[in-house]
Amino acid sequence: MTAYAIPPIDPLRISFSAAHGTMTPEGPLLTRRMSDVAGLFADEDARRRAADGDDPVVYTVAASPVPEAAGELPQSLTTILPGAVSGEFHMTKGHMHPDPQGEIYLGLSGRGGVLMYDGTRTEWIEMEPGMIGYIPPGWAHRSVNVGDEPYRFLAVYPGSAGHDYGWVVEHGMGRRVYRDGASYTLAPFSAAG
Amino acid sequence: MTAYAIPPIDPLRISFSAAHGTMTPEGPLLTRRMSDVAGLFADEDARRRAADGDDPVVYTVAASPVPEAAGELPQSLTTILPGAVSGEFHMTKGHMHPDPQGEIYLGLSGRGGVLMYDGTRTEWIEMEPGMIGYIPPGWAHRSVNVGDEPYRFLAVYPGSAGHDYGWVVEHGMGRRVYRDGASYTLAPFSAAG
Ligand SMILES: [Mn+2]
Ligand SMILES: [Mn+2]
């Protein structure tokens, strides 16, 4: 199965692989390459050069068949590949939920974190395998790989939540996350230039 | 913290222990002893004798501080202690969600499963550590320890879902789960006698 199941759906056994970034049974698989994330990194010229070059995958999102429909509780496994654009670490586009619902991330492998922004306050939660990051309703969220291996996490979110990517384009995320030696540093947000 | 946080709540890092059945930070802890589960097992006389004896713990539910409130996505870690009453394995009371919302269970340790019942159809999902059991909206759910170690799982469910225990008392769960040598067998449901 490579599409969402149609409600009403039956009870399901779902397995996932922290080593491969897959879910079984499979729902839709989303792949975001450098050419899919215009305006995401502060250095837009460098992003365009990378897109015009080998156009690397920035992240993938493998969903289970549980659909994004009201009343369901879908799950997905995100893999952010390691890398940076002018020192700014690979990250997801980030979104706000149009229906203000909470979400959990469960760390699976690699080194990463969740940047959250409610329009006023910004929070950074460093993730570890086996740890939950809780995203309260009303907080936009973006994940960042700050290591040199794939960073993977499982997301569980109400099917009604939705994805408003435009909110993040308009408001930013409060911070950007840059490489700093073997670690990282959080810098004030700046629009892509 | 041994109570739910009051909304609006801030982003949270939450860790949990599959070895100890705890969540950190802590929310409320529920303990169900044999004396708390009158009418749960088919052999009510044997249950009462156990309650009048050393009244063993049947299961505990350790919640995170994320509250059971609309828009939040609370989590809890259930530990079902090994044991049986006249051959019927230890289990949770089970409930239906008054607000029809899905739920996921993530297997953590031990051997167990989820019994689900929608009033007509009954399903049994055998759980494994690292596996998700998906409970669709409209299905009552009960967990059972079919092994001889504690069985533990993490639950994630919308805060609006609620717990209707009366539905299960009235309708049963379609099946009962009994010890069968080193394994288990599913028998037709019978009311406690
Ligand atoms: Mn989300
Ligand atoms: Mn439930």
Gist?
2 copies of one chain form a homodimer. Chain A is mainly beta and 193 residues long.
Using brief descriptors, characterize the structure shown.
three-stranded antiparallel sheet; EC 5.3.1.9 (chains A, B); 193 residues; homodimer; isomerase (chains A, B); Jelly Rolls; gluconeogenesis (chains A, B); isomerase activity (chains A, B); 2 helices; globular; six-stranded antiparallel sheet; 15 strands; mainly beta; glycolysis (chains A, B); 41% strand; binds manganese (II) ion
Number of helices of chain A: 2
Distance between the termini of chain A: 41 Å
Give, in order, the helices and strands of chain A: EEEHEEEEEEEEEEHEE
Name given to the CATH homologous superfamily of chain A: Jelly Rolls
What proportion of the residues of chain A form beta strands (DSSP E)?
35-45%
How many domains of chain A, as an integer? 1
